[in-house]
Amino acid sequence: MQRITDEICKNKQFSSVENKGSTMINRESYLSQLIKLRDQDLIKVVTGIRRCGKSTLLMAFRQYLYANGVQNNAVLSLNFEERESARFATWEEVYDYIIAHLPNIPKRYVFLDEVQILPHFEKLVDALYVKKDVDLYITGSNAYMLSSDLSTLLSGRYINIHLHPFSFAEYVASFPEEHDAGRLFRQYMNTSCFPEAVNLSRTAPEMVNAYLQSVYDTVVIKDIVQRNKLRKFDTLQRVINFLYDSIGSVVSPNNIADTLNRHSGQPLSHNTVLKYLRYFTESYLIYPVRLYNIKGKRLLASNYKYYAVDLGFRNLLQTNAPTIDLGHKLENVVYFELLRRGGEVYAGRTDAGEVDFVVMKHNGEREYYQVAYTVNDEKTLNREISSLRKIKDTYPKYLLTTDFDSANIDGIRKINVIDWLL
Fold it and tell me: Helices 270-282 and 253-262, interaxial angle, to 10°?
């Protein structure tokens, strides 16, 4: 345990400032990306579920600009969720306002939060992009933004930075007084990693579930029900409950529809499930993972695994005790950490069974990961690594568990998952 505590101390290097009585963690990995992209001839698009910290990230980047010589009047920021922005009826009005309030200098910086709320926002983005003295940053809480006219209009002219709720390392940095990594990890698995939920867990833990419920309701009502003009909210809820209850399991639209139809008198079609799956993924409530045939080196169609953007949502909607289904919860944590570290993440299939994750790195290399809460006997260990043993290439293979021992088993590295996360 001492080595884990040492890692916690190392991770206190995260920059943090006091903000209205709570600790604001600067998202260093994301902030460094924005710094690298500064003044590049690209629109910087920051996406992610509501309340995951997009506005705070841009605020931290603006502070970086001010600290590096950019004058305050050269930076203009608008948040289209704020009441003050409701006065703009058209994108042309917003454009005129921005141009009128920026000085005539070689480089100006424009930040547009939740810009997808503005009708024809893509025309505003395009009009600002063509002005070479404007460095443009926008955020959005729905993948619809990037699948809409924006991607068609600005193909090849933007770069997307996708933000998630706190990683475990960021979660650890939020509790500088706590040195028990195991206790922190249990909290991380069974509460929430939304930044404000983490702050509440420090000061008013009894309010965390109420906060999570409000975030969940906002996403469902604004980003799904209202946007898509849905009427059957209860059917929508049945599908998301099924997905949260099936984290890490391979499911298909037919499987979902058939299972729910057996337990309800309300008919649910395959096409309706497909539509709902798209809504959930566009709003970032769930993340789909495609299956990859490792031997045949090809993607498989139809069936997917799904993971919850925040385990707090799952714990809120399910009635299971915190100690239930720990293996799939751990798998959920590992999946999002792999996304943060970069590469395309798939679920692997071999003749011997499943490999939880196959990561295709940008340099063409691969990594294989098997996740198990514990492998405390030889039979369990052999079962968990049997599919990894069947893979004949020499790319790295990992077994992540909560066990404290590390080992190298036939070239497969067994690692404590807390060590790995930190």
Answer: 110
Identify the structural domains of the chain with CATH numbers, from first to last. Answer: 28-162 (3.40.50.300), 168-421 (no CATH)
Q: Are 172 and 184 in contact (CB under 8 A)?
A: yes
Q: Classify 398 as helix, strand or coil.
A: strand
Length, in residues, of the chain = 422
Under a CB-based contact definition with an 8 Å cutoff, are residues 215 and 356 in contact?
no
Phi-psi region of 218 (alpha: psi -120 to 50; beta: other; left: phi over 0): alpha
CB-based contacts of 330, cutoff 8 Å, min separation 6: 189, 371, 372, 373, 400, 402, 417
pLDDT, tens digit, 9 for 90 and up, residues 93-119? 999 999 999 999 999 999 999 999 999
* Cβ contact 208:192 at 8 Å: yes
- Name the strand (E) or helix (H) holding 381: helix 378-389
Tally Cβ neighbours within 10 Å of residue 42. 15
Mean pLDDT per block of 10 residues along the chain (422 residues) reads 39 38 75 98 96 96 98 97 92 98 96 94 94 96 77 84 97 95 95 96 94 96 93 91 94 94 87 96 96 86 91 84 83 98 94 93 94 94 95 96 95 98 97
Q: Are 414 and 405 in contact (CB under 8 A)?
A: yes
pTM higher than the cut 0.70: yes
Pairing, β 344-350 against β 353-360:
antiparallel
